[in-house]
Amino acid sequence: MELSDLYSEKILQIAGNQPIPGRLPDPDATARRVSRVCGSTIEVDIAVHDGVITGYGHEISACALGQTSAAVVAANIVGTPTGEFRRLREQMTAMLKADGAPPTGRWDDLRYLEPVRDYRPRHTSTLLVFDAVVDALDKIEPAQKLAANS
Question: Model's pTM, two decimal places?
Fold first, then answer.
């Protein structure tokens, strides 16, 4: 398989027709991730209420693989419990690095990224959005737990 085989018609279609969520005006947290391998960057804004992601925004400069991941996340993340999103990140990491099964349900389009498994240098850009969202959740959740206990 060649690197060009990664960029299937479906990947290019998802990346090319992605929702552009823009940035959130008042996020609970923001996180930025950069892939040292390819220079892809993403900055995400997250709002969380009662353990559910209620707002999402991003600014991205990435290859088609990173754009595809970000497009699927942008289309599906609002309404997702934070624990579910953390499991999704684990599932994506396992899919790429440990021959794990691709996500299903509303995250089903992520299955088109399964061939990235064979291209280790592309794992980071494919996982960028998941890592950035979890970084943002890591900033939010301790603060919300403190507020709830005070």
Answer: 0.90
